[in-house]
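Researcher: Please predict.
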Amino acid sequence: MGVVVQNIERADRAIIDGLAECGVATVHEAQGRKGLLAAYMRPIYSGARLAASAVTISAPPCDNWMVHVAIEQLQDGDILVLAPTSPSDAGYFGDLLATSAQARGCKGLIIDAGVRDVADLTQMKFPVWSKAIFAQGTVKETLGSVNVPIVCANELVNPGDIIVADDDGVCVVRREEAAAVLEASQKRVANEESKRKRLAAGELGLDIYGMREKLKEKGLKYV
């Protein structure tokens, strides 16, 4: 503990923006159904949709000192990703820290702990996906680390990995896999659009997906 890595690699902005357009569900499926953070990670308000480079924070429970340290390391287009070293629901983050982070181009926060001042954060359009909303305060006493690998909501996040987040949850894409994942995601989007048109025209999923023969093999009987 007590390390701040100042220089991290980030993916190309066009790739990050492309993943944002695809959304969490599509990206998750396209990269082999991996990368999802735990289902309890929920947005504090609906409608936010983003992708951004992760600036990671390993922080002690009920101690937000490292958030202040991490904000200095932000670049435009980054997102803060915090994992406590022991479980905590405390409100590590509120409107003042969001104001500071926004001033440095931060796109939001992913936190496997608590957040507060949610009315103000919503008005500021500063999106947060968190485990809890809780007014419990924190201290600034114990060192953590910034831009080191962390496990956030059961998923490994490396500094510079891409976080994709929307109303469906949060997904992480490895930075070195990002270009390939974007290509697969865009193919999936195009394929789904084709199916959407066929379904809207009245075709059945049973026929589009070729399900009838397999259902028959499984023993499904129409009576």
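Model: DSSP finds eight helices and eleven strands in the chain.
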